[in-house]
Amino acid sequence: MMILCSFFSCGKERDQNFIRVSQVNPRYLEYSDGTPFIPVGPNICWERFETDETKVLQLYEQRFRNLSENGGNYTRIWLSAPFFEVEHKKAGEFDENRVKRIDKLLELATKYGIKIKFCLENFRKLTGYSAPFSSSVAFDKPIYSCDNRGPLSDMDDFFKTQQGKNLYIDRVAFLATRYADNPAIMGWELWNEINSVSFSEGIAGELEWTREMLPVVKSYFPHHLVMQSLGSFDNEKYQEWYTDFSSLSDNEIAQVHRYLDPGAAWDICQAPMDSLASQAVVLLRSMVVDKPVILSEVGAVEAHHSGPSKLYESDTLGILLHDLIFAPFFSGAAAPGQSWHWQYYIEKNNLWWHFGRFSHATENINPVTEQYQPVFFMHDQVRFYCLKGNTHTLVWCRDALSNWHTELIGNLLPDSRTVKLPLQFLSNKVSDVEQYDPWSDVRKVTHVVDDTLEITFKRSVVLRFNNENH
Question: How many helices (H) and strands (E) does the chain have?
Answer without folding.
Answer: 13, 17
